[in-house]
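Changelog-adjacent note: as of this version, every example in the card shows the full chain rather than a window. The one below runs 318 residues end to end.
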Amino acid sequence: MPSDKICHNLKIKDRGRRRLKVVLWVVVPFSVVLGVVLLVATSLPFLFSVAIGATPLLVPGVLAKRVERSVLRREHFFPAFVRTLGSAVRARNGAVLSSLKIVLVHDFGLVNELMHNLYKRLKLGCDKVESWVYYAAESGSHLIHMFSKIFAESIYLGGDGEKIGEIVSKNFQRLISLRLLRLQLASGLRGSLYGSLVGFAAAIYVTAKISAVLSDIFSQPVGDLTVMQGFLDQLNLGVTAVDMARVSMLIGVLVIVHSAASAWTLKIVDGGLTSAALVDVVIMLWIGAALSWFIPVLTDSIMPTFGVAAGPALQVPL
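Full-length structure tokens:
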């Protein structure tokens, strides 16, 4: 799948990205300390301790998703802005500054503030290329960065403003349509990954419970049957007790790895910010923690119906 980043990687960050960076520096250390304290100083189950410790990461995750939505909304207004500015530039024989001043009277939604900042920089005599770079950086959009660069360079090289605006706008809208298909694919993949987590966790917890039950059965004494006892001694089964606490911790580690890998995959597919993956990680951890409690309780209530809950010793009739 071709790469398609929602947000740019310029050194100049928009207001939302700067706020997100500060929140990450505060929340991540707090979340790590909270998780370590819960694991060391409490008797909570492993996955519950990890899930509670990771819950504060929802704050930067939700903030990152808001940044992504803001970027996508700005991209919605960009084609109209480019077409209008291109037509104005052609009408004024390539005069970008005066054309931009006329365009400012129109309402382009979330792009209005960026337009005013661009006009102020150009009016103050700042470098033309740098002014457009700052315009793209404040938008936060990778697509706006690429297409505004093409638009500005073409205008300053003396191209027809109206044709340039039409071409840039049309191709920009085509890429937006393709991105919508990509986001729909990511949405379907998210449902599949959540479902695979539930199936994987349920299957492995049931398997661990069955293994523990079988271990208990084969570790019970056979009574006073000398012949059968000798036969079992010859088999030398070597059955040892299953340490369910250790098994639960290992299963918890697998759930953590699955959650992190799934969230990372989703961000690769939809092209969003890596920080936004924290929301999916936390949700998956809580699903795994809930299953780590529910599945053992369910199996404990079901297993005795199959005759597993036998007496203290297994009696084999002659």
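Structural remarks: Confidence is low (pLDDT under 50) at residues 305-318.
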